[in-house]
Amino acid sequence: EQFFGYVAKNDPLYINKVIHTADLKGEYLWMLDEGHCFRDQLVRYCQLSASAKRAIRYSEGNLLSFMHLVEGGQGMTFIPKLAERYLGTDQRSLVRPFAIPRPVRAIHLAFRSDFVRTSLLDAFASTICSSVPQDMLQMAPNQALAK
Hints:
By secondary structure, this protein is an alpha+beta fold. About 30% of the residues lie in helices and about 15% in strands.
């Protein structure tokens, strides 16, 4: 799943067509709490320095709250590709892709090795795969896994 920047209209990054990780300073960056895998992946991928991590003062809340803050003119946050499908026209104008290589995260189905209901797992995996856009099922050459 690809990550995007969600940037307020009055943020300096709004004029950029793409976001370069070097442009992220952290001053007005809305991030999920420490320990949340979505946050951890992006902090590592964007190589936010220790000073930038300290500048991220707005770390409590949820993704939807952060999106509302951005829509109100406050900084930027990150959204996953699946969130993009629920955005209105005005909200879509706030979405910015990352420069190549674009960060993505892998979503895995984990189960115990002794789980015997393999037909149930197959049906579950099939349902998930049919519910997401087909371009998300394979990593594109211009994407890099955010670890």
